[in-house]
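Whether sequence alone determines local backbone shape is best considered at the level of individual chains. The sequence in question and its structure tokens are set out directly beneath this paragraph.

***
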Amino acid sequence: MPRHQNYSLSDEAAVQLVFRKYGVKVSAEQIAKAYAPEQKMSWKKSVEVARFIEGMTLRQAKSWLEDVVKMKRPIPIRTFKKKQAHHATPWSGWPVAKWPVKVARRFLDLLENLENNARFRGLDVERVVIVHAAAHKGYRIHNIMPRAFGRATRFDEQTVNVEVIAAELPQQVVPKRYRLNLVKR
């Protein structure tokens, strides 16, 4: 059971974010949100997937994540890439890439929820663009692993709170084809 459900952006802040990124004024009724609290998955991979799908349309993000689950297309790893295998850049110029299948499945469920929320609000799903995606650390589940000779080792499990905010944009602003943004942050 989730302990709390707090979006990091209010409706007014989401409207301002859309105006800053796309130069388009939208109302609060043109924004759809989805939140998945306390998911048992990797926080680092969740951050990379959230950063990657931000700026895509809903259809583009879902098709890319479905390809990740099928192990056809990877997710670029930009921040958490120390001691990772660097490939000979077969994927559009990023040497570090992974296929986070478990995280992609959870994000697909979240995007399905976002699509249903957008339909419920009466938005055109073809013009819905993900304007904000974030993964925050949730609480730790504390476990104990018994060891030999009466000892015990603490075994913690990290949870992740994931949020996605999307807005319906005018047709001329919606990205036709997603261009990979390879700028390092």
